[in-house]
Each structure stands twice: as C-alpha cells, then as structure tokens.
Amino acid sequence: MRPTDENRPLKAALVGAGGIARGSHLPALRQLAAEGVPLEVVAAVDIDDDAVRRFCAEGDIPNAYTDLQRMLDEQQPDLVTICTPPTLHREQTVTALRSGAWVWCEKPPCPSLEEFDAIEAAEGQDGGPYAAIVFQHRFGSGARHVRKLLADGEVGRPLVAHCQTTWYRNDAYYSVPWRGRWATEGGGPAMGHGIHQMDLLLDILGPWAEVRAMAGRLVHDVETEDVSTALVRFRNGALATVVNSVLSPDEVSRIRIDCERATLELTHLYGYGNDDWRITPAPGVPDEQAAAWRDFGPDVPSSHLAQLRELVASIRAGERPRSSGADGRTSLELISALYKSAFTDTTVRAGDIGPGDPYYTALHGGAPGWSPSTRTEEAHA
To answer: If 0-12 CB within 10 Å is exposed, 13-18 middle and 19+ buried, where does residue 366 land?
Structure first.
C-alpha cells in the first residue's frame, strides 16, 4: 500500500532515541523536508521515557511514546525508521509492517536469516509496505558511476577484488555489556562493522557463488570473533578477498576491483565522496577514455540522506525499494556463510543455508568454542 494523495506529506516516526537516530536518521528526514519533499516527523518511540521526551524536545518532534503499537495506532505513520539494537529489529519491523507502515531499518538487519525471512513474509504484496535496510554506501554517486562502467562493459570483466574493513576497537569499547555477544550484536566485525563494505561489493559485482573463510578471537575476550578473512567467488567468475577486523590501528575501509581494462578503487573510512574513488586504466587505454571514466559527475556522498531520497520515491511509487527483500538479504546470507565456513572448515555455497541448518537460526551455528553455551561449558571445565 502507499499514500494515494501525492500532495499529502508522508508521516514519519522514529523508533529508538539513541545516537544513530540523533546523528543520522532525524537529520536526513529534516533535510529531505527542507528540500521541499512533503514529509513530516510526527513521533518518536523509546522504552526510556525521559530519553524520548528529551529527543522529541530537542528535535521538535510533537509526540513522544514508550509503546510502539500505541504510536502506530494513534499516529498511523507512512514510514517508520528503526534505530534500535539488531535483536529488536524483527519484532519492531514486523509490527510496523502489519500496521501498514513502510520500514527503514538500521544495519545489521537482524541476527539471522530466519528472522530476515520472517520480516520479508510480513511485507505487503504488490505496492508494499516493504522493509528496507540502511545500506547507505550503495547510494553515493561514486558507486552509481562504477556500477554503470561495469554494466556497460566499459572497463571489461571484473577479475580480482579486495574488500577491507580494518578498524580498531579497544577494551573500553568492549566493556559495554552488550558488545561482543551473539545475543545482542548478532556477530562480530563481519556482521557489525564489515557489513557495509561487503554489501557495497555485492551491489557492484552482483551475486556471490561460494565462500571459504577463517575467523579468530585474537585480542578481545568476547563471544564473537574480532577478525575474519574470506575468499569469495562471484557468479561472474571474479575472485575476492574480504578482511574484517577491529584490531587495526591504521583504520581504513577499502574496495578494489581489478577489471580487464582498469582498476576501480575506493578508500575511505565511514563514508565517501567522488574524490575517494580512483580509476587506474590498463596500459594502452587512450587518455581520453580514461578521462571519461574519471568523470563521476555531480558529487553525491554516500549517506542516509541519499538512500532516504530513493526510499521516499519508492514509497510514493508503490515500488519495492533497493536493499529490501532478496536484494537486502544477500549481504546477510554471505555473512552467515562466512561464519559457517569459518566454524566448520568447509566451503559454503550460495543457497546452502536454509531451514534446518543451525546457521539459519544463529550465526554461531552452535559451533564448539563459539556459541555462548559451549563457551560457558569451557569456562567451567
């Protein structure tokens, strides 16, 4: 379903009054309205009454709630943005969808493929409502330009790729009780940190075919891993290395794709603009051709705002948005396969993980030494 009156402002509500709501979601909603898009923020929800009241007062939001269902019943928003921890995403997203609201949910989408499939099952049919995941790196002008170069065959076939999320998190970061735990974070750096770069790599290169991975707990006393590496074969034949780390003092986010006629490279940290991309032509490529490849056009940085623009257009058109449904699931499937490969010492292929597989219901898969129950048993042995 979608708003039938194209002139009526879309009503938006935020769930969660923490840092990501304050720093990213609300500013994107406000900026879109300032650009003339008919949109109004009507409510916010948080279990902490004081926190949500402060959030609403500071953000000029008219209605504060501590009960999601009550907010949905009374405000009937068209769009609900979910800014809460991943273990709450399934329940809150399904509740919002069943009320008729479209959903924009922060990453990670949810802690398992089983929960993601439950969300997709709650979506509407033709015309929505649908639930999109926040994968804002897909939506910068740089990624759009590179996708077009590949789709048009300008730079030839992609052959070799590198996907790197090497960040640094110290002991103080993991002293927060919910961090580093499967039940509350869903996973380690592969899930909570590297998911953005992996999602962008998949968005550029297309479907993956198989993965072989390793994971380690090298520094931090946590349930999850603190570093992982993987080899990924794509359906188009390209081979990629993936590294996700929270042990790296020289922090960087990086994607490099070596194609037949050029290397396409992105180096940044938490977001990029056109200047963060570099295109290196192969020997023999004419200078004028290389110059055309390097013309990215107007700079649209990767951001929540860039994704929100497309999402609102999809709501108005009643069309499934990017990063929802099967398109939004692909990164979580790769991450699930990465964990299964690392913990079982096997190659995992796309489509292998489904109902009945322990990695379908939990990313640790009950693996000895990794699942919370086996960690507890080892501690008392």
So the answer is: middle
- Residue 88 DSSP SS3: helix
Q: How many other C-beta atoms can be found within 10 angstroms of the C-beta atom of residue 354? A: 11
Of 3.30.70.120, 3.30.230.10, 3.30.360.10, 3.40.50.2300, which CATH number belongs to 144-299+331-361?
3.30.360.10
Tell me the C-alpha distance between 155 and 281, whole Å. Answer: 8
Q: Please report which helix (H) or strand (E) contains residue 168, including its range.
A: strand 158-168
Query: What are the pLDDT digits (tens) for 81-116?
Result: 999 999 999 999 999 999 999 999 999 999 999 999
Cross-strand pairs, 245:
166, 227
How far, in Å, CA of 245 to CA of 212, rounded? 17
The pLDDT tens digits for 334-356 are 999 999 999 999 999 999 999 99
The rounded distance, in Å, linking the Cα atoms of 309 and 33 is: 10
